[in-house]
Specification:
7 strands; seven-stranded mixed beta sheet; about 220 residues; globular
Amino acid sequence: MTFHCFFEQSGTFKNEFKKLGYEAYDYDILNDFGQTDFQVDLFKEIETAYERERERTVFDRIKEGDQIVAFFPCTRFECKIPLWFRGQAQQQKSWTEEKKLMYSMELQKELSDFYKWFSELILVCKKRSIPLIIENPYTQPHYLTQFFPIKPKLIDFDRSERGDNMKKPTQYWFINREPSNNFIFEPQIINEQRTHDGISKNRKTVRSMIAPEYANRFIREFIL
């Protein structure tokens, strides 16, 4: 069994899969840590696999028995987005109505694109019978929680209980498979807590927000 880890956070999970003795690969358009195995535009790959099935994509690397774990970008689904649509974000105080409206139009287009790619990823995996797990924040209001027709099969309301250093609630969609729900008989790992305020906006920091201890426990509890 090989695990194909897509998007941000994928490096953390890839390394934990490998520690547990499994083959795993990291796919992302970035290579901040010099460990991305396949540096590729995953949005383009998803779109191509959905629209032009005969063209080769990363999905052709996935063999029977393999699984995808995708940390889909939440950029346009998160709870602050409605503020930007309404022109009420702190950064928009001095904007004219015309500027707010033009930005809102562009934001709507980007939201539509992300929603399409999210849906297409699931449809591609359903058609190819590929087991897929997709992660996204659960902080409310969240666009997918409100408007997506497939409900997540697992919501982790407090990641710190599984060793992460953030409580950030997270939801997981399990496609073509169910969560394993294994019992982990070992002491809980307590990491120093941190908040979003103390996190750099540098993509390197954002990419590594999930603690390895959390990834390892999550893998053993719900994936293996």
